[in-house]
Each structure stands twice: as C-alpha cells, then as structure tokens.
Amino acid sequence: MKDATKCLHAGYHPKNTEPRVLPIVQSTTYVYDSTADVAAVFDDPTRSLIYSRFANPTVMAVEEKIAELEGGIGAMCTTSGQAASLLSVLNICNAGDSIISSSEIYGGTINLFAFTLKKLGIECIFVDRDATDEEIHAAFKPNTRLVFGETLANPALTVFDIERFANIAHEHHVPLIIDNTFATPILCRPFEFGADIVTHSTTKYMDGHAVQGGGVIVDSGNFDWTSGNFPELTEPDESYHGIIYTETYGKMAYILKARMQLMRDFGCYPAAHSAFLLNMGLETLPVRMKQYCENGLKVAKYLESCDMVESVRYPGLESDPCYELGKKYLKGCSGVISFVIKGGRETAMKFMDSLELASNEVHVADIRTCVLHPASETHRQLTDEQLVAAGIEGGMIRLSVGLEDIDDIMADLEQGFAKARG
Ligand SMILES: *Cc1c(COP(=O)(O)O)cnc(C)c1O
Predict the structure, then answer these.
(1) Which end of the chain is more exposed for a tag (fewer CB within 10 A), N or C?
(2) Of the candidates 235, 250, 280, which is a domain's last residue?
C-alpha cells in the first residue's frame, strides 16, 4: 500500500458487521475466564491485553499504522514527544553510560539530554551536525550506547545527514535514533537511510489540529543488539522473571522491552480517546503535508526577497546550505521556516505582535499559521553558548505556515513587516 492508503486503512481491519471507524476502547482492563489465563498473559504479555497502562486496542491500532508508515516492525505510543525521546534512550542506557547527540535538536530534548539525563548518570556529548567524520568518531567512548539526531531540526531547520551518522554509529555497534517529527514518514523515512529507531512528537503534524499531545517510538527491527553493548536486552531481566528479550522476541526485542518494562514502570501511555484523535489526524496526513510544503516554499521564497529579512532557513530554497541534503532526504520541506529579522530581538517581537492572522503561540506544525520566538520562549532556558550551538539568534522567528489560503498568509506577513518597520 502507498502512504495515502496506509493512512486510511493500516492498523484497523474491521470484520463483518464491525464498526467502519476505529472504535474507542475506553476500558482500563480486560476480562479473563480463569486465573490461569491471566497468569499466562503475565508470562507473555504479547499474547493478549492486561491493563491499559501499557496496551490498549485503540492505541495499538494507531501504533501499527505509524509502524507501517515508517516501514518499521513495531511501535509504541507515549503521552508526549518528550516521553518518547526519554524512553527511546532509557530503553538501552543506564547510569554510567553515555550518548552522542546532534547539537541541532529541539530545545526540550536538549534540556532532557544535557540536564535530566545527567542527573540519572547518563552523559550526553553534543556534536555538530556538520562535524567531520573524525570529529564524530572522537566523541565515542567505550560506554557510548547510541547516537541521536533530528531529520529536520526544530527550530534550526537544518537537515541531518542520516546515512553518514548511521554508518558511523554502526561502526561503533550502536544504533542511530532519529526524531522524525517535522518530516513525518510522508516526507522522510529514516529507516531507508540506515536509522534504527525513530521517534516522533505526534503533537505536531501527525495530530495536525492541536487537539492532543503525544509521542511514538518506532523500531526498524534492523539493529543487532547482541554485540555485548546492550546487556539490558541480552541478559536476563530480573524484573520480568529472567526474560532475555533478544532470545524471546528476536527482532522485536527493543520495542517489546520498551513496553513490557519501561511502559509498565513509567506508565506514560496515551488514553484511547487521544489515540482516536491522533488517528483522525493521520488519516489526512499526506494531503496536509503536500499543502504545507507548497505553502511553506512560497512563503520562504517571499521572505528571501524581503528587505526586512536578514536570512531564511528553509531547505527547499536553493540558497539554503542544506538544500542538497534536503533533496536527498526529504520529499518536501514542511511548512516550518525559520528566519532572522533585521533589528534583532526587539524588531522580532514587534513583528510578531503585529500579526493578525498568524497566532503567537507555543506550538508548531499546526493547521493554523503560528509564530514563535525561540530565544525568549522554547529555548529560554539555554545559555547563550547553547543558543549558538543550537543555531538560534535573537532576531530568529520560527514561522509555522498553516493551511489557510496562501494569499491571506502573505498579506498578514506583509502588514506585519510594515508595522515592524514603522
Ligand atoms: C515538540 C517536539 C518534541 C517534544 O514533543 P512534545 O509532544 O511537545 O512532548 C520533540 N521533538 C521535536 C522535534 C519537537 O518538535
């Protein structure tokens, strides 16, 4: 099946007389005929459902749909993108381990990696996306467990060279985890370029309508966990009567451990109703992505020609430093643009406050056009040094072009610039 068909049909296959639309199974629990039946499911939770802290039929249908869209073998939804990033790491890292991450990633993930993981005893070494191979190799240590990057970085809008980083990670027998939020599987499938695990904040384009937060982890099933680097997967899990995930579940080891162990313990599993809403967003994802890309490119071209604009980052522009990488990895560059307005922080705020159609909000990749000022909002907690490393300047504005008529979007930007100039 092609993407548009998968978006409508994958994950839920109603039989004779069953509902056409994915049902909301709003139940925390499931009944069994006997104690022995329940015991058997505790022995092997993949047999059936026990409890909605870690599995629910509505959520699982959406998990299957997203896994199919990414070309993976399994997926697990979470209550937020942050929870997906956290669990994707904790699934294979313990205190005393280290990870390598691109420095151009979402601000929330920088906080998580640089501060919270550190408190848990996991060190993160940040590398430049365009560091040389030698520099990246030099960041590896004997305790490095994974490499992390973002397909299309939020808010830097740079493109991550997935294939290059995957090859380097694999030389060190560790997986590459890619946050594919902005691209969505419609614009890029990181597994096709060698990534091993994909995460998403489904809060953004996948949901698309700003109605509920969520995240997902998808497993390609391609990574070999048995190099000795991942005892969590290859040695008995005491908390699960000695199960060895790689022996019992083979290619599904990573994603099933995430559910059986981490989701059991952390419990950040979405409600059935949230998954139902996410599914509705996914149904129209290909149509929406196409239009976002079209509107995004038009606005990016306009901004590039605008005398109030110092620079524009949008990999769909031929002048963009990531244009070639964008051509390789992306089937379109989404509706998110970041640009630097002349006059710095003050003019940026004046421009943003003058917009009438575009809303000033902490969100991105929404169906409605919105703007955000990274330096004073999402990336407020970062030091000036970290801001530079994350590619953020005081005059930088992140513009998320929505699905309104392009003429109305342009008119709003024009009047905003006129007021900011005055
Ligand atoms: C928003 C975002 C996240 C965090 O997701 P939440 O759903 O807000 O927790 C992670 N990565 C990227 C690229 C994001 O844009």
Answers:
(1) C
(2) 280
> What pLDDT is recorded for position 66?
98
Long-range contacts of 159-164 (CB under 8 A, 24+ apart): 159/315, 159/322, 159/325, 159/326, 159/329, 159/330, 160/102, 160/104, 160/129, 160/325, 160/329, 161/129, 161/325, 162/190, 162/193, 162/194, 162/195, 162/329, 163/193, 163/194, 164/133
Q: In this structure, are 276 and 312 located in the same domain?
A: no
Atom of ligand 1 nearest to the CA of 83: 9
| Atom 6 of ligand 1: nearest residue by CA position | 81
Q: Are residues 51 and 110 in the same domain?
A: yes
Structurally, the chain folds into a number of domains equal to: 2
Give the pair of three-digit tokens for residue 209: 């309508």
Q: Which atom of ligand 1 is nearest to the CA of 182?
A: 13
- Cβ of residue 366 lying under 6 Å from some atom of ligand 1: no
Residue 369 Cβ inside 6 Å of ligand 1? The answer reads no
Helix (H) or strand (E) holding 201: strand 197-201
pLDDT digits (tens, 9 = 90+) for 309-342: 999 999 999 999 999 999 999 999 999 999 999 9
Q: What is the CATH number of the domain that holds 379?
A: 3.90.1150.10
Q: Using the predicted structure, report yes or no on whether residue 215 has a pLDDT greater than 90.
A: yes
**Do 90 and 211 fall into the same domain?**
yes
57 lines ligand 1 (CB under 6 A): no
Regarding the beta carbon of 82 and ligand 1, being less than 6 Å apart is answered: yes
Predicted confidence (pLDDT) per residue in 98-119, tens digit: 999 999 999 899 999 999 999 9
Q: Is the CB of 107 under 6 A from ligand 1?
A: no
